[in-house]
Structures are given as C-alpha cells and as structure tokens.
Model the fold of this input.
Amino acid sequence: MSTFPTERTVLLTGAGSPRGIGRYTAGYLAERGWHVGLVDIDGDAAAATAARIADRYGVRAVGVGADVADRDAVVAAVDALEARLPQVVALVAFAGVASPVPYLDLDADEWRRVVSVNLDGTHWVTQRVARTLVSHGVGRIVGISSVSAQRGGGTFSRTPYSAAKAGIQGFVRSVARELGPHGITANVIAPGPIDTDIMGGTLSEERKAAMAADGVLTRIGTPRDVAAAAAFLISEDSGFVTGQTLNVDGGLYMH
Ligand code: NAP
Done:
C-alpha cells in the first residue's frame, strides 16, 4: 500500500472564481493540512486566492494562470507549481464552462469551446500530473462530472456540456485502470445543482427551490458538499476506491 508523504500538495484547476467550488475546496483542503497549487484561466484570481489561503491556513499555496484547454499552457503551469510546492499527491480538476445553447442552435465553435475546456482540459492536466504521480508511486486524481451527464441536462447546461461531462466518467475509469498498478486512484464527483454562479449568474431563491424540488432533499448543494467529497477521494485512506463516480446531488440520480 502506498503511503503519503507528510508534506503533500493538491493541485486544483478552476479555483479562481469567487463563489466557485474550486476556490472553496482549496480552502477546505488547506484547512486540513494540504499545500495547494491553483490553476485558473484568471491568473490574478488564482494568485490572490493562493495568497489568502497561505495567510489564513499557514500552508504553502501558489496560484498561476492557464487555459486548461491549451496543453502547453497546462504543462507550463504544473511545472511552475511543482517547482514551488511540496510533492504533488493529488489533483482535482474543477475547471469547466457551462453552455445553455439548445441543441439545434449549436455551432461548431460552441461545441469545441465546451468540450475543449471540460473534457480536453481534464485530460491535459491529468496526463501532466499523472507523470509526477507515477514517478512517486502514489497519487489521487479526481475529475468533475455532473448530474447533467447522467440525466441529459435538466438544470442549465445542455448537450455539449452533458457530452463532455459524460466523457469525463469514461476517461477517468480508463485512467484508473491504467494507473492503478502505479499506486494511483482516479475517481469522479458528479455534483447536482450547487449554489455557484455557473448556471447563468447567482441563483434566485425561486430557481434554487425549483431545482431542489427535483431531488429527494429539500435544498440544492453547496461548495462545501463537493469539497467534503473531494477531501475523501484524495485522502490516504480512500486508497481502495477507484474508477468510481460519487454523486453529490441530493438524490437527483440514484445509481
Ligand atoms: P465556476 O465558479 O464557474 O468555476 C469554474 C472555474 O473554472 C472558474 O474559476 C473559471 O474561471 C475556471 N475556468 C473556466 N474556464 C477555464 C479554462 N479554460 N481554464 C482554466 N480555468 C477555467 O463554477 P462551479 O460551479 O464552481 O463549477 C466547478 C466545476 O463543477 C465545473 O467543472 C462545473 O462544470 C462543475 N459542476 C458544477 C455544478 C453546479 O451546479 N455549480 C454542477 C455540476 C458540475 P473564471 O471564473 O475566471 O472564468
């Protein structure tokens, strides 16, 4: 069984947005002793978030800018983070974009934008980080899917988003199979509606109530719900869980 080093770093993509799940999770994990490396399309936001986390939790934290859809930019970002942080043990790939465009109105640019950030972006950062994890013989990878992949949309985003998020599930299962012998686990979190700004801006109480009505609990999710799932999946003790999808969706999709 592979053990974690005492000083260990988690890398998170999509950790710049002020009310986003990635940024919240970075603080949540730092509070639990993880050093954090952040990548966001907005490098200033990533750096500012990292500075706040370092100050508040006393861990090492660095934030850099990169478009996750750009392989060379992702590789350079992870290189830069690795040079300034303790051993990278985990990756949580939160970076994503929504797309409410109806299917018959979809053009080539929108399809490519959504698939390239959500799916290609997850792949590029996973491949780069996996090389480090394999070299150490230990690691945790978490991809972020969505209930939209399982239920055909139904919240805000539509077809390219559902397709990309479904792709992440197949992608992560294959990575789990290939990298398992190297001491690495790979899993997916599939959130239901979470109270962030990705679904066309800050949610009204009416929209939250309508989305909650579809599940078996009386509320939509919070970034903390997803952060807690990520903390489990990257923990040392989760080492026998791999290739799985953990639905954090208030019972919207029971599987
Ligand atoms: P969010 O606040 O918009 O977070 C997405 C983050 O990704 C933002 O920080 C954004 O940066 C960043 N990003 C966007 N494009 C990028 C790119 N090309 N390269 C690097 N970073 C990029 O939304 P969220 O709700 O926290 O979503 C986090 C993840 O959870 C996403 O993958 C989303 O699809 C997934 N998810 C969310 C929900 C939900 O209901 N909220 C449900 C299911 C799944 P900027 O803000 O600077 O553009």
About this structure: The chain is about 45% helix and 15% strand. The domain at 9-248 is CATH 3.40.50.720 (Rossmann fold).
